[in-house]
Automatic annotation (TrEMBL):
Keywords: Arsenical resistance
Domain Phosphotyrosine protein phosphatase I: 4-129
Name under which the protein is recorded: Protein-tyrosine-phosphatase
Species, as recorded: Desulfosporosinus acidiphilus (strain DSM 22704 / JCM 16185 / SJ4)
GO biological process: response to arsenic-containing substance
Alphabetized SMART domains for the sequence: LMWPc
Pfam families linked to this entry: LMWPc
Length: 137
């Protein structure tokens, strides 16, 4: 049986969604496949996000990840919007939820650390809900 495909989506695909993709790959790959994408691309992943994920989890996002458009990823079963505030992109899926996470871009390391830990907890919660069939796709 194929694993559930989860897309973490925001507008720029450079910070929160990239962190979620990395943490999904690290913490939940036994339950779901993680992708991230946006409606716009950036030339590179937010360097503060890269540094914080490296520092906390010893994972280099730049080795396997890059900014992608929604059309660049497989059709997801589950879409998680990160908290776009204004125009969260629409992506067809079987289940969707918004995590409402503030963008730490341009803020302190403390904010990036808080964001990373929040995403970690939410990824683990999502993994558990999928594994327990609380979310069906």
């Amino acid at each position: 049986m194929n694993k559930v495909k989860v897309a973490f989506v925001c507008v720029h695909n450079s910070c929160r969604s990239q962190m979620a993709e990395a943490l999904g790959k690290m913490l939940a790959s036994d339950v779901f496949e993680s992708y991230s994408a946006g409606t716009e691309k950036r030339p590179y992943i937010n360097q503060d996000a890269v540094r914080i994920i490296k520092q906390l989890y010893h994972f280099n996002m730049e080795e396997a990840q890059f900014s992608k458009l929604i059309s660049d990823i497989p059709t997801p079963d589950i879409v998680i919007t990160m908290g776009c505030n204004v125009n969260c992109p629409y992506v067809p899926c079987n289940y969707r939820e918004d995590w409402g996470i503030e963008d730490p871009s341009g803020k302190s390391d403390e904010e990036f650390l808080k964001t990373a830990r929040t995403i970690e907890n939410m990824v683990l919660d999502l993994k558990e809900r999928i594994a327990n069939n609380e979310i069906t796709v």
